[in-house]
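Researcher: Please predict.
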Amino acid sequence: MSRPHTVWQRKNSPWWYTTVNGKQERLAKDREEALTAMHALLAHGKKPEHVKGRPTFRKVADDFLESSRETNSQSAVDSHTRYLDSFCEFVKAKRAPDLRGEDVTKWLRTKPTWGPSTRSLAIQAVKAALNYAVKEGVLSVHPLIKVKQGAIGRRERILTPEERAIIRKRASGTFVDFLFALEQTGARPFSEIGRLEARMINWQDGTAELPEHKNSRHGKRRILYFTPEMMTLLRRLAAEHPDGLLFRNRFGNAWDRMAWQKWSKLFAAEGVKGVTAYALRHSYATDAIARGVPLPMLAELMGTSVKMLLANYSHVCQKKDALKEAAMRAVT
């Protein structure tokens, strides 16, 4: 009886080998990858191409980012790029199959200012790049498959009526219009309201269909629905800016997180701390749920799913008055 095929290493060599028909075949430096190559060699008479070239993680990351630019929003691409560049700088020219969990652990230790959510997003980006490489056949195995991503903290911040009054009083200039639009629509601040143009608006229906949005790659439509007060504002802005962006900062540029942070600091000086642009979206969702807006309708209004709505945007537990009223309705 012939001996079963297996893989083995030579002394003082990082390479794994096997013997087929009396001939020694060099396979790979990673045992799991070597096993895959051995089975391919036995089944098809040749090793898979990706075993012959062991890409660096930098190469894997670059290929993933190129694909990400074709399918993801610019904000997602920027996020992926930031984390992947940081990891590449840490691991340098290390080959992707040689990565180990300790590489991630040591990398994150060099980022003491990163909180749990940031760390989770960073690990997610690294694993996404490796998942892409496996899917494309560049890697046979995922070297970090067992690394836990951790949880992304929920944005729990919603604004009280008193805080909103302070913010409205402090706001000035073009920021007033941007703030009003966020309160009226609950739309994504920078990728939706921040990119809205007059050409997108259906003036008869009081809606706007966005040609590019977070879920456009899935073939979903994103329609914004406007109140009469919002339509009045949009008509004024369209008269001022018939072409290009409707909502612009005082420099004529699109609103972004950097511009928002300046206002956030001013609000903090007034005692209202931690006000992000998404706080308006979260407050919109929470208020709507408390007022009895059906979840499927609210999900459509906000361009998300009911599952995501409940997981990320519902903070009804902070609406004590609404909960007290619901408690009374439950028994009467």
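Model: The chain is about 50% helix and 5% strand.
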